[in-house]
Amino acid sequence: MHRLLPICLIAATLSVSWMARANPGSKPAAGPGAPTAATKPLDHADELFEQAVTAYDAGRFADAEAKLAQAWAIKRTHDIAGNLGVVELKLGKYPEAATHLAWALQHFPPTEADQARQGFQRDAAKARAQSGTLHIQVSVAGADVSVNGLSVGTSPLAEDIYIAPGNANVVARLDGYMLAQQAVEVAKGEARDVSLSLVLSGGKPKGRSLVPVVVLGGAAGAALVTGIVLLVRGAAKRGDARTGYEAITNAHHSCVDNAANYDASCPALNDTALSAGTFHNAGVGVLVGAGALAAGAAAYFLWPASTPTKPSALRILPTTSTTSAGLLFSGSF
């Protein structure tokens, strides 16, 4: 409360009628131990309060608001907040009036006159009826909360937030967390609940698609089977070639060109031996590719998740000929 008793009287009755005094021109008596101008000089907030009263009496409501706002910045008391809310209501600044009147009622001393409390309550109800009310809850304490770009406090917010009717963008920010926001539309006299959930910026990775793992794993399996088939076929051809050469040797024939005992089956055996080497080399290469594909599948699965991309269609076709063999990969990458 302000130190000067006349000002206390003004503050107590202002919500009913600004400057309405019980006995104009008279000065209430100070009770035992009450501070007086002789023992407690006016501070700057009290001076601003008196100037606001003078401005209000002169009909200069904007000046009265400015003086009370300055006093509020210096010292937060229920009478400054309440009277500031009354002037703001007079000026049609309903959300601001509702905010200051709510603060005044929350901090209203039990020793103050009930008439002043009731006046503040009536004015607060008028201001709320022309404003939108937001009940804001944030999942993490300590976050800076803003509405339409203006900071309204730090979570948890114990008080309601009053705004002009219409659209509102509610944002919560906290270091180490991703920004959380919600757009709401509130009508005149309406109250809306807003819940914001903050998520750690380095939190749990998003679930990744299993399609690439399946594709790479399938390709690795197909390559493994193909490589084994190629090695088996190469070994079979090598065995056929060895058996043929042994038969030629046992028949005392030769595969040396232009030799008198040159065997007519030599060209076919030479082709068989050549294709045996080709199949063997292709089998080894395909098995190496199978290992690479398996390693790729494992790396994708174990590597930290990143932004998912649309999986591409991948086709694997084994191909062989008399001189070559391998896997044909097709698709868009």
- Give the low-pLDDT segments: 1-39, 306-312
State the CATH topology of the largest domain: Serine Threonine Protein Phosphatase 5, Tetratricopeptide repeat
How would a textbook summarize the main sheet? 4 strands, antiparallel
Shape: rod-shaped
Instruction: Specify the CATH homologous superfamily of the largest domain.
Output: Tetratricopeptide repeat domain
Q: What is the tally of beta strands?
A: 11
Tell me which CATH architecture of the largest domain applies here.
Alpha Horseshoe
Provide the spatial order of strands within the biggest beta sheet.
Answer: 3-2-5-7
The number of distinct structural domains comes to: 3
CATH class of the largest domain: Mainly Alpha
Give me the strand/helix succession: HHHHHHEEEEEEEEEHHEE
Summarize the structure.
This protein is α+β, with helices and mostly antiparallel strands. The chain contains eight helices and eleven strands.
Protein model, in words:
It is a single chain. This protein has 333 residues and is of the alpha+beta class. Helix content is 47%, strand content 17%. The chain is built from 8 helices and 11 strands. The protein has helices at residues 5-13, 44-57, 61-74, 78-90, 94-106, 114-129, 211-250, 266-302, and strands spanning 132-138, 144-147, 150-154, 161-163, 166-173, 177-178, 180-186, 191-196, 199-200, 314-320, 325-331. A hairpin with a 4-residue loop joins strand 10 and strand 11 (325-331). Helix 4 runs antiparallel to helix 5. The longest helix is centred in the C-terminal third of the chain and has 40 residues, at 211-250. The model is unreliable at 1-39 and 306-312 (pLDDT under 50).
